[in-house]
């Protein structure tokens, strides 16, 4: 087992460095994960370009990355359902378990939530763009070993899309329009199809993502870069 990790660490705007740091002994109640794959979120790019995302300002070196999959290499303590060698998708949020939201079973809205690779709290919670990193067992969602790490790393953004589709109610056989053909929009399109929606239209202001939407199965794409006449006609 290696005693060092190497991590993509942000020091300031456009100052991302691969930094090696020593790994201490794994703390009780934690699991250690070897990096498999990581997705680059829009927020990672904001951090990289400006050393901030909205109100979250990087005030000390921050390892980016919160769409991560990997393999469990060490466990210290109880980790129900998890074993060394398991492949996991990592839930980037760590909730407190005792605030009002946590108690009512909505840990995603935890008032004291920490989020991997985010400057929302100081000290910042380090992210997963690291050769090895630690998490709590509850953050680890086991995936079959035949699922590619790249696919498992999409679990976090896919969760956003599944939630969006769930919020939309019953969309079976209903026509759907999605605004934005970035990764979240496209995953939402796939999630809507999974729910058996009717015709699906994707609107965006850029040609390349719209072409990709068509490739992934959009029935119609609308390019809004030249105005919304086509969209208005659709609504009529
Ligand atoms: Zn993200
Ligand atoms: Zn909480």
TrEMBL record:
| Residues passing through the membrane, by range | none
Q: Which residues form the Alcohol dehydrogenase-like N-terminal domain?
A: 28-144
Per UniProt, the keywords (alphabetical) are:
Metal-binding, Oxidoreductase, Zinc
Instruction: Tell me the InterPro entries matching this sequence.
Output: ADH-like_N (IPR013154), GroES-like_sf (IPR011032), NAD(P)-bd_dom_sf (IPR036291)
Please give the Pfam families that the UniProt record associates with this protein: ADH_N
* Family to which this protein belongs: Belongs to the zinc-containing alcohol dehydrogenase family.
> By what name is this protein known?
L-idonate 5-dehydrogenase
The lineage's top-level taxon is Bacteria
| Single annotated GO MF | oxidoreductase activity
Organism encoding this protein: Mesorhizobium alhagi CCNWXJ12-2
